[in-house]
Specification:
With 294 residues, the chain is an alpha+beta fold. It has eight helices and 14 strands.
Length: 294
């Protein structure tokens, strides 16, 4: 028969015995901190629970937290970059009538372009655009990870179904160190779910375009003197850090243009090769046009 020890006539078993011995060894002229066997059992359960917490596997979930020495918008270096453009009936991930809203076919043929812009029409959206392989919207709501992984989500969120990524500014740098600025206008190349690359530390995943992780418009290509497939570095930037340049000239989606209109002080500059698009203004004599700058 197994012997048991008791305190106040209640069995305490092996766990109680061990604790009793510990108390007895160090109990000289001390008061026992446990008033009953129930206290012992409660303490034993607490020790067990603490031990289990230490050995339970960690569950990894997207987090907006980052190391203190990590910049908010780190550079993505040596990214294969491909050319894409708005076709005559092309939709984007966020605009079913993107080509229509853009104003026409953004012909990549250098013969059909002048001064980084198409010669056939004046773009109604910023011709300096790019694509990245993530879409923050699924159906009519934000994706579950969006709030955690997109650094500017909280400050930019307006309502469910409206992207906080669309038209975000991106700095793109060529091999010689020249910078161009473009607005994020579509998703790709090839996929729209790779947040681990766009906002994290992963590399672009393999695809049919040599593992491309960035698409750029003809205007970006021409400004940076890129080939149809090339290598660039890129990072997100806040609008306040975007300098004035050819990317500030056109677009209903362009905050440079919007700010100029709000100030009621439109600054005009002549650019060769395209007719004026400003209502009430006579077209500039060839080869000039008028465009809006900040």
């Amino acid at each position: 028969m197994r012997k048991t020890w008791t305190i106040r006539s209640r069995p305490i078993g092996v766990v109680g015995l061990v604790l009793l011995l510990i108390v007895e060894v160090g109990a000289t002229a001390q008061v026992v901190p446990y008033q009953s066997s129930a206290d012992f059992e409660k303490f034993a359960r607490m020790l067990r629970e603490n031990a289990l917490l230490k050995i339970e596997p960690s569950i990894l979930i997207p987090s907006a937290n980052r190391p203190l020495n990590r910049p908010r918008y780190p550079w993505k270096n040596n990214i294969v970059t491909t050319l894409f453009w708005t076709d005559r009936k092309m939709a984007s991930a966020w605009d079913a009538k993107w080509a229509e809203h853009f104003g026409g076919f953004d012909n990549p043929n250098p013969a059909a372009r002048r001064g980084f812009f198409p010669v056939a029409f004046v773009p109604r959206l910023n011709p300096f655009y790019c694509s990245l392989p993530y879409n923050d919207i699924a159906g009519s709501t934000a994706k579950p990870e969006a709030k955690a992984v997109i650094p500017w989500f909280t400050e930019a969120f307006e309502r469910e179904g409206k992207s906080v990524c669309r038209d975000r500014w991106v700095r793109i740098r060529n091999r010689s160190g020249r910078d161009c600025f473009a607005q994020w206008s579509d998703c790709g190349p090839f996929r729209a779910d790779h947040w681990q690359y766009v906002f994290g530390d992963e590399r672009p995943r393999p695809n049919a375009n040599q593992g491309a992780g960035l698409g750029v418009s003809p205007a970006v290509r021409d400004f940076l003197s890129l080939s149809s497939t090339d290598v660039t570095d890129w990072q997100f930037v806040e609008f306040k850090d975007v300098p004035r340049g050819p990317w500030s000239m056109f677009g209903e989606n362009n905050p440079f243009v919007e700010n100029a209109r709000k100030r009621n002080g439109v600054l005009l500059q002549a650019v060769p090769g395209v007719e004026s698009s400003i209502p009430g203004k006579e077209p500039a004599s060839a080869p000039e046009q008028r465009i809006i700058l900040r």
